Amino acid sequence: MILPIYAYGSPVLRQKAEPISPDYPGLKELIANMYETMYSSNGIGLAAPQIGLPIRLFVVDGSEIDEIDPVDFKQTFINPIILEEFDDKWSFEEGCLSIPQVREPVSRHAKLRIRYQDEQFREHEAVFDGMAARIIQHEYDHIEGVLFTDRISPLKRNLLKGRLSNISVGRVNVSYRMKFPKSR
Asked: Which helix (H) or strand (E) is 128 found in, with range?
């Protein structure tokens, strides 16, 4: 089932998400719905807060990006904790399904080490680099209540104020379902 994406200004996007346990109700179906929602929105990552759930869960599929080996980078991250971000920072233009039609360069570390659980709640610790690390950092920010616009300069953020306000009241044209915090 395709779920609505919560738009910029929704309080859930600013909450620090809570861990979940294996008995979380309907988890398997929720994960399937998140992938379906992400694909239908042409996204490469989707965090639970973006569908209104303040839980530590996100899905990614970077197989459409040339720099990523598609076999290794469709993953579900449950209760992730970034242990370390390292190597040089590099800037790349990011966007977000919750902030449609806004793209800005964001500087992030090239590598990270993360501990997480998969759909069967088996624990993993892995190192990711390049675009995979960037996508994970972006989605991880969501479960920490951080948006990519928080990582740009105050001047650029100020210049975007009107566009962000328009998004929060639904004055944006997108091809996917959205839930807006304020009425149109």
From this structure: strand 123-129
Cα–Cα distance for residue pair 139/130, rounded to 1 Å: 15
Its pTM surpasses 0.70: yes
Task: Out of 18, 94, 125, 139, pick the active-site residue.
Answer: 139
Report the alpha-carbon distance of residue 124 to residue 10 in Å, rounded: 31
Domains for the chain: give ranges and CATH numbers: 5-179 (3.90.45.10)
Q: Can you give the length of the chain in residues?
A: 184
Collapse the DSSP code of 14 into the 3-class scheme (helix H, G, I; strand E, B; otherwise coil) and give the result.
helix
In the residue annotation, 139 being an active-site residue is answered as yes
Give 60-98 pLDDT, tens digit per residue: 998 877 665 544 689 999 999 999 999 999 999 999 999
